[in-house]
């Protein structure tokens, strides 16, 4: 039997007069790839911001493995097992590839200031596990051999993979990818697609926002469609392709 990893229950957020996300209900099953598609401004990134605690919803509830998470601080949500990437690249260009991954794990650092100064055995063990997790994540994204290069010197497609490595290193159960293939060439997209499938096979659940329809249709188990903040459809790729409301939302613009 499948387990529901994430549930959104009537989730709404208003920014002043704008209802960016409007009474959205959504369930994601563990171990699947779920996509969220819709025109620009539909509210896709805002849904990621709600799940990761950047904004509290105006109303509604979000549950992760049955536990209510809305209202929790972002770092607590990361610790519980939700990681994300952002629509625009957020790397430190003058830091190395490995450092860029390690920096994503500050949530795991429990060492206090004194502990850090004394470099107690506990702190050293913690540092070691952060390095190990970071190297593992880089291996998954096939960037291990580039760990000492500066992030700014990687080709664009590898920079985007580096961001996924950073999210993976926090040891998530659910990973949110906001337009991971944007700006990639077909070869880079193909590589990314096989890596996302590899992540799925590692028992992770993936929630994906992406505009490239071929990419979305071939990767996803289920797709939800958002338009003006409202969920207008949900189903398998085959169902979504022939859904009249979806066709209207896309062709109407
Ligand atoms: P998408 O990712 O689907 O392109 P977004 O979620 O980024 O869309 O945005 C949905 C709508 O919410 C847009 O109209 C956007 O301008 C608005 N919005 C997003 N964040 C904020 C904010 N912090 N303050 C005001 N409006 C916002
Ligand atoms: Mg967006």
TrEMBL record:
One of its GO terms (cellular component) is plasma membrane. SUPFAM superfamilies: P-loop containing nucleoside triphosphate hydrolases. Residues 6-253 form the ABC transporter domain. It holds the Pfam family BCA_ABC_TP_C. One of its GO terms (molecular function) is L-valine transmembrane transporter activity. The keyword Nucleus does not apply. Keywords: ATP-binding, Nucleotide-binding, Transport. GO terms for biological process: D-alanine transmembrane transport; L-alanine transport; L-isoleucine import across plasma membrane; L-valine import across plasma membrane. PANTHER family: AMINO ACID ABC TRANSPORTER ATP-BINDING PROTEIN, CONSERVED COMPONENT OF ABC TRANSPORTER FOR NATURAL AMINO ACIDS-RELATED. This is ABC transporter ATP-binding protein. The lineage of its organism: Bacteria, Bacillati, Bacillota, Clostridia, Eubacteriales.
């Amino acid at each position: 039997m499948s387990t529901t990893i994430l549930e959104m229950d009537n989730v709404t957020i208003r920014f002043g007069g704008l209802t960016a996300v409007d009474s959205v209900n959504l369930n994601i099953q563990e171990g699947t790839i779920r996509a969220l598609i819709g025109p620009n401004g539909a509210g896709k990134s805002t849904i990621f911001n709600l799940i990761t605690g950047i904004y509290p919803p105006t109303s509604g509830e979000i549950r992760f493995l049955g536990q209510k998470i809305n209202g929790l601080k972002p770092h607590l949500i990361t610790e519980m097992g939700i990681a994300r990437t952002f629509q625009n690249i957020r790397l430190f260009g003058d830091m190395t590839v490995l450092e860029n991954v390690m920096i994503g794990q500050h949530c795991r650092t429990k060492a206090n200031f004194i502990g850090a100064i004394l470099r107690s055995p506990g702190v050293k063990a913690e540092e070691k596990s952060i390095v190990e997790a970071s190297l593992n994540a880089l291996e998954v994204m096939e960037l291990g051999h580039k760990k000492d290069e500066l992030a700014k010197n990687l080709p664009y497609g590898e920079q985007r993979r580096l961001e996924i490595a950073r999210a993976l290193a926090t040891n998530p159960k659910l990973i949110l990818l906001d337009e991971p293939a944007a700006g990639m060439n077909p070869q880079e997209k193909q590589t990314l697609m096989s890596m996302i499938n590899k992540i799925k096979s590692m028992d992770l659940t993936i929630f994906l926002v992406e505009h490239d329809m071929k990419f979305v249709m071939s990767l996803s188990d289920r797709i939800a469609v958002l338009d003006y903040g409202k969920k207008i459809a949900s189903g398998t790729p085959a169902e979504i392709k022939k859904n009249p409301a979806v066709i209207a939302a896309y062709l109407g613009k």
